[in-house]
Amino acid sequence: MSNNECAFGVVYVKFKPHLLMVLVQLVLSFLYFLVEASLNKGMNPHVFVTYRHAVGGIVVLPFAYIRERKTWPKLTLTMFVELFFLSLFGISLTLNMFFESLKYTTPSFVASMINTISPLTFIIAVGLRLEVVDVKKPRGMARVFGTVLSLIGALIMTLYKGHTIQSLRGAPFNVRGKLVHNNWIKGSILSVASCISWSLWYILQAIIVKKYPAQLSLTAWINCMGAAQSAAFTVLVQRKPTAWFITSTVELCCIFYAGVICGGFVIFGQFWTAEQKGPVFVSMFNPLGTILVAILAYFVFGEQLHTGSLLGVVIVIIGLYLLLWGKESDGDYKSQQSFPTHVEQKEYRTQIKTSAEEEVPQRSVSHATN
After folding, report:
1. Which residues are in the EamA domain (predicted)?
2. What does the alpha-carbon distance between residue 263 and residue 26 come to, in Å, rounded to a whole number?
3. Cα 199 to chain center, whole Å?
4. Residue 175 in contact with residue 253, Cβ under 8 Å?
5. What are phi and psi of 106, to 5 degrees?
6. HSE on the CB side for 147, CA within 13 Å?
7. Given its phi and psi angles, is residue 352 left (phi above 0), alpha (psi -120 to 50 degrees) or beta?
C-alpha cells in the first residue's frame, strides 16, 4: 500500500462522521420538497409519518436480524420503556408536529427552524453533563460563540425577511399547489415544539445507544414503535378512512423515499455518529441542511428567497465553523462517557465472577491451615 493510500485512509477515518452527516443533510433536503408535493396532492401528514416508518422498519428489520441477532442485549422492562420514549421524541411526537407545520409554512422556513436544535441540544447536554465546556480555553469559547451565532442566524432567517429575491424563471420543478401558507403563527409554534422534542431525542440517543449498541436493531425498533405510536395518534385525530389511501405516484415515491432512505439510512447514520462523536455533533450539521434547502428551493423548485435568509445563512456558516472547530478538541467521544456500554458491563460482571471464584479456594486453604 502506497503512502498516498495510507494518508487517504487516515483522513477518511478521521472525517467519516463529518462526511456521513453531510450526506444525511443532503438526503433530508430533498425530503422537504417531496413531502410538500405530497401534501399538495392531499396526503395527510400524520398518515405519511405512519407509513414512512412502517416501511423503514420492514426494510431494516431483516438486515438487523442477519447481522446483529447474536449481539442483541436483553430486552428488559426498563429498556422497553426507554425505547418507547426514544421513539416518541424521535418520531411520533416530533415528526407529526414537524410535518404538520409544513402545511402552514414553507420548506425553507422549517429547515431554518431546525437550526435551533443545535443550541438547544448543546444547552441540555451541558446541563446533563454529557458535554463538558472549558470556557477558559479558545476551543471551549468557540463552541459557546458558535452555538450563539447559529441561534442568531436561525432567528434572523425566521423573523427578518428583508427584500424579496424573485424566484428563478424556468425552474425545473414546481411543487407549489393548493397549500395556502397563511398561518405562520401556528406553523411556527409547531416547528418550535418539534425542535424541542428533537433536541431531547438527540440526548436520549447518546444515552440509549450505549446500552443498546446494535444500531441496526435499534433503528428497526424505533421505526416500528414510532409507526405504531403515530398510527394510534392518527386514528384519534383523523376519522376519515379515505385519508389512509395513496392516490398518486408522488405520494407513493415520497413514502418509500422517506421510509427506506430517511427512516433507514438517516436514523442508522445518526445513531452511529451519536455514539462516536456525541449528540451535539449530530445536531451541529442541521444548519447545513438549511443552506441546501435554500439552494434547492431557489434554483430547482422556484421558491422566492429573501435578503434576511441570505444574511442568516452567512451567520449560520460562521457559527457552524466555530462549533466544528471547538468540537474537534473533544477527541473520541466514546472514551469520555462515564456510563459503561453493554459490552463493558458484561466484561465487568465476568471479571467480578472470576475474582469471586478465585477467592473461594484461597479461603478454603486458609481454613484448612488453621
Report:
1. 18-158, 186-324
2. 14
3. 9
4. no
5. -135, 165
6. 21
7. alpha
Helical axes 45-68 vs 249-256, angle rounded to 10°:
40
Q: Mapped to the 3 state alphabet, what secondary structure does 48-107 carry?
A: HHHHHHHHHHHHHHHHHHHHHHHHCCCCCHHHHHHHHHHHHHHHHHHHHHHHHHCCCCCH
Asked whether residue 8 carries a pLDDT value surpassing 70, the answer given is: no
Contact 136, 54 (CB under 8 A): no
Residue with cell 465472577: 353
Q: What is the pLDDT of residues 66-111, one digit of tens each?
A: 888 888 888 889 888 989 998 998 888 888 898 888 778 777 777 7
Of the chain, the end-to-end C-alpha distance in Å amounts to 65
Rounded distance between C-alpha atoms, residue 329 and residue 135, angstroms: 13
Sequence-distant (6+) residues with CB within 8 A of 315 are 149, 150, 152, 153, 156
Q: Are 316 and 287 in contact (CB under 8 A)?
A: yes
The residues near 368 (Cβ < 8 Å, ≥ 6 apart) are none
What per-residue confidence (pLDDT) applies to 365?
A: 44
- State the amino acid at position 21 in one-letter form: M
